[in-house]
Structure formats: C-alpha cells, structure tokens
Queue: 2 jobs
Job 1
Amino acid sequence: MNMNKKLSEMSLEELWELFPIFLTEHQTCWNEWYAEEEMILRRVIPQAERISHIGSTAIGFIQAKPIIDILAEVPRGCELADQKEFVENSGYLCMAQGTDRMSFNKGYAENGFAEKVFHLHVRYAGDNDELYFRDYLLEHPDVAEEYEKMKLKLWKKYEHDRDGYTNAKREFVKKYTDEARVLYGDRY
C-alpha cells in the first residue's frame, strides 16, 4: 500500500488493512477521554439533547477495540446536515451521512491510529438502541462476558473486515437490545 496516499483516496480494503480490528483490556483512560471529548462536543453541537459514551469502551470489565464510541442526540426539528461543518471543524471526518444519521471518525492518520480514536454518531433523539444495549451489559455481567467471548472469537477472523465483524455480532446485539427495551421501557 502506498503510505503517501491520503485516507480519502484509499480503498475500503486499504483502510481495513491500515486500521485493523484489535481488542485490548479495558483502559481507565477511556472514561477520561470520553469526558474530555464530551466537553468539546457540547460546544460543537450545543443543541445536542444528550451525549453518551456507548460501545464496549463504556463497559469497564470487558475487552474492547480502543475506540471511544459517542452518541450525540439532537432534537427532531434540527437539521442534521447543519451539524456537519461544526463537527468537521473540530477534527472529525464524516464517514457516512443520511437524512437521519451521520457518522464521524477522529484519530485516524495516514500511518495508522492516533493515541485517541473516536467514532461519533449524530442522530435524532430517541434513535439510541446503543444506550439500552450498554445498560443491559452493565447490569448483566454474565451477558457482557458472553459478548466479550464472542468478540474474541471473531477478532482474528474479521481483523481486516469491519463490516463482517459488525454483521457477525448483529444478532446478539439485537437480541439483548430488544430485551433491554422491554426491561427498561422508555428509559431514554
């Protein structure tokens, strides 16, 4: 692979090769990094109703990819597209944009991951299944341990295939998200 290529010029396969999936023990700094980034995002997206730490880095007792996942929920009357420029000006790269969801990355460099890596999901309030799944894992350590074991099995198989890795976890995540929604009702 030509390391002089810009990230935006790389194929999906080249990006997956440069940014492989790997898991590591929970790091206490992840909560600190989230808190610092949340303060930045509150200034960048002042209309956000809620900003939340989601994903496995929010679960303090399982291994995770060292990427801090953040969910920012904005009111339904707000135009998501209006947030894009502000988020990009704070160092994020827009990876996907639809009418009701946008995804951004920060901490990806031409030579690999930076020390701090973030995935930001900007959505309308209520589009927040990840909060239910997170809370379910926090309150059901046995399920969290099962999730960790599954991720460890999938890691090497999908090391250079993020879509495959995500798709292989989809049924498990949906099952426990659905259970959480029934258990917690309208928590969020």
Note: Strands lie at 50-54, 68-74, 93-97, 101-109, 112-124.
Job 2
Amino acid sequence: MELTHLDEHGAARMVDVSGKDVTARTATATGSFITTPEVIALLRSDGLPKGDALAVARIAGIAGAKRTPDLVPLCHPIALHGVTVDLVVLDDAVKITATTRTADRTGVEMEALTSVVVAGLALYDMVKAVDRAAQLTDVQLLAKAGGRSGEWRREPAGREPS
C-alpha cells in the first residue's frame, strides 16, 4: 500500500490534488456523548447552568468542520457547501451525527469527523460542572460518497469494511 502523504524520502507532504476532477462529495460521521440520566434530564429541560448545550454543540460542530484544515496537518482547505449536525438525546447519551458536503477535488471525511469531535467537546464543556465523567466515544466515519473511489459505507458492527 502506497502512503500518499509521504514523499519518496518518507517525509510528510500535502497530496497534490490539482489534477483531480471536481465532483460532489459527502461524508457522514457519528459519535456518542455518554453522560448520566440526570444530565440528560437537564439537557431536555434546558436546565444546565451554562445554557442550551445542544444549540452550542450544533454550532460548534459546524464551526469545527469549517476549521478542519487549521486543526489537522496536511488536510486540504476546501469550500464546504453544507454541514449538518444532528443531536439525538437518548436515555444516557447524546448521539452526534455530522454530514458534510462539497463539490471539490478532495473528500470531506475529515470535516465530518472533526465536526463530531468538536460538537462532543462543546457538550463536555457545557456539562462538566454537573458530570466530569462524561465521555465522547465511538467516533467513526459511517459513509462517504464522491470522487474516484466512489461510495463507501461502514459495515454493521462486527464486520470490517473493505
């Protein structure tokens, strides 16, 4: 397997994508923010001391996607055409799902993953006064589409993707 981010001497480099076609590209990532039922009740009633944690997390996730090339070395700056951050409040967790879209020469997988992580960090910041043990877990790419490699979807749990 050839590592595209290394030159012939093994030094890190940004991949030259100038020869690639501009295509529509999407990526979806997910993660879980695990907390206590008491914190979930506060999230549902807008009762956290710092305010509306879900709104803050949603905005943070969008901002995180936009700042991905500033945070991840060798990541190309691309024009994001859409970012959605969905937060589903469960009994003991918040399921975070981010979808990123562009028409560009390289994919948006890193932007989707960064969006999930930044949304999770914002949730932690908002709830840490009442639950320092909260956790962001299971951050993973679910699917990507577009570009030369086409579509990819994560296989159900227990199976490795190809």
Note: Strands lie at 23-34, 82-89, 93-104, 135-145, 152-153.
